[in-house]
Amino acid sequence: MTVSRRVVLGGSLALAASSGFSLPASASRSQLVNLGHLDFLGDSVSPLSVPGHSTYGSGPLGVLWTYADRRDDGTYARIGGGPYDAATDTYGQGAFNADDLARAAVVYLRHYRLHRDAHSRTAAYNLLRGLTYLQTTSGPNAGNVVLWMQPDGALNPSAEPVELPDPSDSGPSYWLARTVWALGEGYEAFLRVDPGFARFLRTRMELALDALDRQVLVKYGRWNVVDGRRVPAWLIVAGADATSEAVLGLSAYVRAGAGAAGGGGVGASGADASSSGGAARARRSLARFAEAIAAMSAGGIREWPFRALLPWGESISDWHAWGAQMPSALAAASTALRNPRLLTPAIGDTAGFTPLLLTAGGPDNGWLPAPIDRTQIAYGVDARLQALLGVASAANRPGLRQVAAFVAAWYFGANRAGEPAYDAATGRTYDGISGEGVINRNSGAESTIHGLLSMLALDADPAVARQAQALATRPVSSGLQVVEAESAQLSSGATVVTPPSAWTGESQWSNGSYVTLPAGSRASWTLPASTEPRLVLPVVDLVPDRTAGRSTWSTGGVIHHGSGGPQGVSAAPGALLPVSVGVLPAAATTLTTTSSGANVRVDAVLLLPLISKLQLGANDLLVSVDRQPRSVPVSHRGTAYSYTSSGQLHSRRPANGRVEVLPGGFTVVLK
Fold it and tell me: pLDDT, tens digit, for every residue of 215-233?
């Protein structure tokens, strides 16, 4: 056990005493991480010399197959992306891609740093060599990254189907952001054990920052308008999700000194990467990207999206779990930059939105804005887990580690399938679970990578790991419900409309349809009974049109359907948004609305219990959107930990039939 490993365990055990976890039975608890399947996906290539592409040293490059399809006999076959041409042994996209090379390198780097494992160090080294070969080193696209490589190592800059940018190194991209992530963590890991390689990684990081400076950060300080909301124009590919992965790498780079691997040298961009100016630029870039991510915080305790950090800078109606690393990035940046103000939106996301997400069914692929894509994948689960653990550490909120255990339990069977999604015996993470609870038993690179990143985080925090495995039972939840608008009884004139496409360009009509209500028309819903009052949030099309009508709701609320803001850079005028119209009493089973004008379009109605609940066996997570403290009945005994809306511990007491839940806060009951 290394010194760094002892430090991690020491912090974990110290937090365990204050956050209600049982301590691990033994410091030598078996590891959850198994690199076997990731190793299986690995390969090597020796590409021909190509102008503008080079790497460190000599010899074959490390690469990673994109997909692994399960065969009928239970074995797995490695395949690439796009149609396969057997005659040329090529794929429409390619066999290997920069996205997965970068993220797999992060897995091996973190495993090496945790365990000082020689195999992981070698694998990370080889993958970073393969990744940097994909980076363009000269010409107008210098610093950008080619996404795809064929089985023989040939680059495929223009894939089929087309992906943007095309060619893939012609502009900023997710794969450039993920390359920055890997370069930053690689530089930090190799700085002392292989300074020569670290200097090379620094040179390539500076080359990537050149590209980000001229393509993205040149827009720093400019703001776009998206349906009336100001959003930062300097997000990578307009995504807080993509930007967050670059921030993870930049945070590691800055932590390591951002240019401290002595020896000088001129990078491929021609800049002296060892100068103090390089370190200053890295800090500046990190600060500006973190500022942009923080600006994507939205909503409130009763207002959609309930303090989440939105992932896309061209929609105020879209949240997705996959890639939503924004809170993790802000936590990392706050520590690297010593800027605690970055933690405020990260705390809102992890202590406010995430508990509600869990009681609504878990980290779904798409709230658009209604929960429409209920598929759950490791990329989304891992993002929630890393966020909770990262913010818990950076903001001193140990209670978020309890919520992290509820998230991590997904891997061990606390999911809609009721079965493990991660197999520790093989290292496979399955490719997702549908909204109906069907497991996709393929195990491609992305799922494998993020499953292993989660297992590494759990191995570093054994108290959370033990609790997560103890919580591994099929979930029972009473949270957010969706009632389709077209399920209403409609008066004369009101009609159901099914547009040619459910996707609007920035959001999606739930169930592919909506109801239009002309002046004087009415819609009435018969709702399932509830023992808890429910916040009512109709999802409506808010347009920038003062002549549009209003809808008046039986809960007392009124929606002005013409109150939408200017379209700006969004793909369509108007925005589908949930709007609170009051509270439906617990005994009520009917809801009505009446229109008083034109352009009144209702997509669905979201019903959110004032106290929502997720139960895993004899353990509960309760979340409040009430304005008053509540004493809530629970069906089993244990210890109740009550937290404020900012995730601070308010009380710890026995759960003897009732527990306290604070306004906007959450309470965890552990057996």
Answer: 999 999 999 999 999 999 9
